[in-house]
Design brief:
With 315 residues, the chain is mostly helical. 67% of the residues lie in helices and 3% in strands.
Amino acid sequence: MTPIVRGRPVRRAVVVLPNGFTLANLFFGIFAIVAASRGDFGKAGVYVVLGGVCDALDGRVARMTGSGSRFGEELDSLVDAISFGLAPAMIVYFAVLNQQGWDWVFAFIFAACAVLRLARFNVTQAGGSKTHFIGLPSPAAGMTLATYYAFSQTKLYNEVLLLGGTKVLADYPWHVMMRILMVVLAFLMISPVPYPAVPKVNLRTVRGIVGGLILLGAVLGLIFLPREFFFPVLLAYVLFGLGMWLVLIVLDRVPTAESIWFEEDEEDVEADEHESVIARHDEMPTGRRRRRRKKRPRGPLPTPTITRAVEEESE
């Protein structure tokens, strides 16, 4: 006899899949704090980057499977506060800051700005795909800060980057530069500076191809040059958004809530609307999904009338 295959466990697995990536992000965030407490700051930065990869995948998997929900959004924000707010701040605390003085306030400022950034995102931009973010995204800020220490110990930082025969970066103490970088990234997260979102990967549009190249470059950089690759690329992203914002202000084109980078494809808009309808349907209680029956009138039932023919038959 052929066994009956039920569809409910499959649906449940699809819903759990994006949350699994979110919890993997949390795992790498906690692992980064543990590695930093043990003095392994280079690996701690790599773990934060791995958390960023998981953070990028959970939203895409949720959109692909149509399993996005309010629970997943809230879980993602809570995890991001740890992986990209607390973990990078603790890496800097263990690596640079004076643990006997008041330098720990720098860690508080960065973590507080990351939490404020995520709270503002939940109120203003949560749900659906976006062309830009208001303020520096917390994953970008966290990964930039977490990967700075490993980059500052490389030959590229200390010997290769020369300008006019002088070392561009090595002449500045890296532990002092890290404090400045920490404050700048913190305030960029809560600033109104718009930053472009990474395009979704597909082969039908130019944006999709660019998104695929970015993803491929990140994977190759993580495998072959994790210390030399990520900080310069992330820093270029930070400076690009800030530079474009300043140019727009000079040109008297103050950025608004609308996209200033490019328009969304019609396919993306239709997909987002379809996903939001599915999410609302999944979150609706079961009783509300069923068709409501007409309410019966309250009070005693009316007495049935007996016709004359029925009375004669009874006699």
